[in-house]
UniProtKB/TrEMBL annotation:
Top-level division of the source organism's lineage: Bacteria
Name of protein: Usg-like family protein
One Pfam family cited in the UniProt record for this chain: Usg
């Protein structure tokens, strides 16, 4: 009988000891966001900041946590944020191969 670890909760951060592959197998996908913002001294100039992390769709808790951090701690006022999410692999799309050989 095989036991499976419970999937990630939307309320928990991914553990830092997990590899990217392990995160993807637990349902995380790569989220890329572009933050367009104004600095207080140059309100007529738009600046861009790109952010990437592994996150869970469709709620994107890590992205929204970063947006909340930005609004609380960064002086630049957000004009808008656009993002994309790509789930690379899932548990049923990956199998562990113990060996490999070439046939001529």
């Amino acid at each position: 009988m095989t036991s499976h670890a419970p999937g990630p909760s939307l309320h928990h951060e991914p553990r830092p000891d997990l590899s990217e592959t392990e995160l993807m197998l637990r349902g995380y996908g790569l989220t890329t966001a572009e933050f367009i913002y104004h600095m207080p001294d140059f309100t007529h100039v738009l600046n861009s900041f790109t952010w990437q992390d592994y996150d869970l769709a469709p709620d994107h808790p890590r992205l929204f946590k970063f947006i909340a951090f930005w609004q609380a701690e960064i002086e630049g006022k957000l004009a808008f944020v656009r993002f994309t999410h790509r789930k690379m692999i899932g548990p049923n799309e990956w199998r562990n191969v113990a060996g490999e050989f070439t046939v001529h």
